[in-house]
């Protein structure tokens, strides 16, 4: 017998920073009948799951955190992963959200019923939750991407992904391979290299790397932040404005200002030169695509690691993984004890099935008709359902500003519907088309559309040739647009 579904006014999917933020905002509006569903056993999302050696943010901590929830205790300018995880746990405790969280609940589907104007959210174990509204905070980096390399299951040694690090296993003294050279690999490679007997790094596309100006936050400054939270807000605003300006000139208006990314590429090339003496090695590490086409990162130790005697950079393509190691297309096979997959995520992949009016499947609709949304939050045909964020929803460099803007809008729309006695709220098709048209027009000016991105294999561009993740606006522009976004919904 199917157990009776748990009923709530709002179901929040995910208890990462987005879900926690949504819970706080709902409670602040007096909406207490909500539940957060998370497949993990703790809050924190990507920062709970990514515990690989060297994991830390590459956005300054004052900016990579909620502006309305300042944390005076960051130990360094860029927070280590463990502190971000602790910050999430602290938020859950401070706002007493834990009783509302159903851990170990892996959502497999959410289906809308027009007759009742309600959603049924189903977990893997069959548990069901029925609600008027759903806020999906499933995260952009939640589904590890399994690389399409033949023989992945043939390897007889230890294989692990950066997102599922096995801390009971030691790489010390082992022959290790890292596949991938993205932002995660950049952190794990220098951290584990000294311990390994030998480390072979398989690079398909080099990454642009800038120096990381990191420093310990002095105790006196932590004290100032604690006693005068306004001081941290001022620092946040300065960092936030600087990154917004950088993003605007380098990414959003690249077509008009291409010299900016060219100048940054020259600086990054000079940095590489200062780090690596061997010209042949330097050439292998130099990207052949423009700066900004793929996500760049920062590290003071990544490049120099390749000059270690026990590290090899392999740029010949991988043919397959064998029982003993990795064979490249030139027939060379390297015997290994450990393979680390630093091959990233299915960016913006939906981790569960979302069926709207008439059972229309959201992922198929996006696949066939291109990614689209209203204000990066709602989709016509999916009433009472909000994404934090959806396509064209990520604003600037701060994930926290993005999720804050999205969940604030979702909660405002729910509160307004409740106040008006409305039980169905759906993004208007014409308003959505207008928003998407505006975003696609703006995307034409971004760095992603520059010819320098042609051979970059960037995940910012999808199979339709769209760059649908970033909302090419500043936070100020997006917040201003959100003030009048309520009129783009049909209510009943
Ligand atoms: P990623 O940036 O997508 O990098 C994946 C790497 O794996 C790329 O080098 C890719 O090569 C390579 N790869 C994928 N499939 C492959 C295959 N079949 N054969 C060979 N190589 C393959 O993933 P990530 O490093 O995990 O980072 C993901 C995102 O997480 C970042 O973009 C960033 O947004 C975020 N991140 C943030 C931080 C932070 O500090 N805030 C830290 C880590 C990660 P190609 O480039 O050729 O595809």
UniProtKB/TrEMBL annotation:
Classification via InterPro entries: FAD-bind_Monooxygenase_sf, FAD/NAD-bd_sf
Residues in the signal sequence: none
A Pfam family it matches: Pyr_redox_3
Taxonomic superkingdom: Bacteria
UniProt protein name: NAD(P)/FAD-dependent oxidoreductase
């Amino acid at each position: 017998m199917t157990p009776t579904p748990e009923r709530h006014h709002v179901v929040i999917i995910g208890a990462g920073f987005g879900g926690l933020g949504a819970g706080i905002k709902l409670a602040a509006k007096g909406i207490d009948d909500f539940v957060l569903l998370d497949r993990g056993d703790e809050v924190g999302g990507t920062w709970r799951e990514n515990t690989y050696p060297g994991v830390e943010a590459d956005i300054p901590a004052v900016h990579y955190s909620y502006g309305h929830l300042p944390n005076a205790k960051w130990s360094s300018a860029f927070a280590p992963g463990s502190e971000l995880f602790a910050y999430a746990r602290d938020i859950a405790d401070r706002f007493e959200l834990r009783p509302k969280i159903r851990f170990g609940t892996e959502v497999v589907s959410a289906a809308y019923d027009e007759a009742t104007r309600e959603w049924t959210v189903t977990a893997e174990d069959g548990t069901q939750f029925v609600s008027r509204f759903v806020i999906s905070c499933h995260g952009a980096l939640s589904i590890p991407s399994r690389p399409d390399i033949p023989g992945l299951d043939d390897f007889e040694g230890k294989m692990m992904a950066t997102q599922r690090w096995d801390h009971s296993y030691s790489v010390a003294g082992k022959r290790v391979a890292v596949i991938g050279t993205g932002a995660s690999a950049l952190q794990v490679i220098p951290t584990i290299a000294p311990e390994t007997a030998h480390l072979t790094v398989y690079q398909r596309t080099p990454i642009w790397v800038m120096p990381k100006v990191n420093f310990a936050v002095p105790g006196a400054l932590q004290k100032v932040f604690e006693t005068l939270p306004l001081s941290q807000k001022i620092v946040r605003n300065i960092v936030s404005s600087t990154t917004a300006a950088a993003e605007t000139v380098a990414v959003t208006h690249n077509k008009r200002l291409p010299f900016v990314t060219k100048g940054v590429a020259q600086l990054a090339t000079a940095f590489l030169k200062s780090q690596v003496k061997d010209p042949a090695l330097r050439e292998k590490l130099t990207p052949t695509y423009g700066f900004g086409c793929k996500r760049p990162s920062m590290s003071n130790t990544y490049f120099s690691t390749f000059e270690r005697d026990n590290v090899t950079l392999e740029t010949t393509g991988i043919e397959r993984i064998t029982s003993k190691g990795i064979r490249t297309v030139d027939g060379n096979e390297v015997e290994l004890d450990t393979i680390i997959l630093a091959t990233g995520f299915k960016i913006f992949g939906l981790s569960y099935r979302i069926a709207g009016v008439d059972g229309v499947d959201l992922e198929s609709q996006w696949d066939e008709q291109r990614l689209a949304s209203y204000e990066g939050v709602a989709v016509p045909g999916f009433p009472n359902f909000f994404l934090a964020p959806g396509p064209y929803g990520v604003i600037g460099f701060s994930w926290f500003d993005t999720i804050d803007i999205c969940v604030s809008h979702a909660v405002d729309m729910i509160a307004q519907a409740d106040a008006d006695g409305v039980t169905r709220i759906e993004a208007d098709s014409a308003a959505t088309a207008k928003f998407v048209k505006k975003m696609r027009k703006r995307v034409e000016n971004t760095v992603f559309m520059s010819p320098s991105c042609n051979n970059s294999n960037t995940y910012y561009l999808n199979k339709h040739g769209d760059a649908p993740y970033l909302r090419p606006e500043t936070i100020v522009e997006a917040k201003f647009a959100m003030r009048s976004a309520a009129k783009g919904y049909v209510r009943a």
